[in-house]
């Protein structure tokens, strides 16, 4: 099983629409670890890691987002895997 960790920045109408909770539910359903938070510029930042295929599924769901959101762009880069991180959480 191949594992990876991605750093993701999501732009569009992604704050105030339940986007972070959506990401947390989707990541947790796939047993991924990491975190998500709102950034001051109106974007949402995500770091997610786990099974490579499941991380890719999370990205596909993130492109859709919850019904009240509107994703206009996603920036993705692979970063170092953190073997000590467990669970997915919301940061403030």
Topology-level CATH name? Alpha-Beta Plaits
Continuous helix count: 2
Query: C-alpha Rg, in Å?
Result: 12 Å
Classification by helices and strands: alpha+beta
CATH class: Alpha Beta
Main β-sheet, spatial strand arrangement: 4-1-3-2-5
Mean pLDDT: 97
Largest sheet: 5 strands, mixed
Number of domain units: 1
From the spread of the alpha carbons, the general shape counts as: globular
Report the CATH architecture: 2-Layer Sandwich
- Measured by DSSP, the beta-strand proportion falls in 35-45%
Distance between the termini: 32 Å
Task: Write down the secondary-structure element order.
Answer: EHEEHEE
Q: Show unreliable segments.
A: none
List the helices and strands and how they pair.
Layout: E1 3-13, H1 19-29, E2 33-38, E3 44-51, H2 52-64, E4 70-79, E5 88-90
Parallel strand pairs: 2-5
Antiparallel strand pairs: 1-3, 1-4, 2-3
Helix pairs in contact: 1-2
Question: How does this structure look, described?
Answer:
The protein is an alpha+beta fold. It has helices spanning 19-29, 52-64; strands spanning 3-13, 33-38, 44-51, 70-79, 88-90. The protein has one domain: Alpha-Beta Plaits, CATH 3.30.70. Helix 1 packs antiparallel against helix 2. The radius of gyration is 12 Å and the shape is globular. The protein is 26% helix and 41% strand. The model has no long low-confidence stretch (mean pLDDT 97). Strands 4-1-3-2-5 form a 5-stranded mixed sheet, covered by helices on one side. The longest helix has 13 residues, at 52-64.
């Amino acid at each position: 099983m191949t594992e990876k960790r991605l750093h993701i920045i999501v732009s569009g109408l992604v704050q105030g629409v339940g986007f972070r909770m959506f990401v947390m539910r989707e990541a947790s359903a796939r047993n991924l670890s990491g975190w998500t938070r709102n950034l001051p510029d109106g974007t949402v930042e995500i770091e997610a890691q786990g099974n490579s295929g499941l991380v890719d599924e999370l990205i596909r769901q993130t492109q859709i987002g919850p019904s009240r959101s509107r994703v206009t762009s996603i920036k993705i880069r692979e970063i170092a895997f953190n073997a000590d991180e467990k669970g997915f959480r919301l940061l403030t």
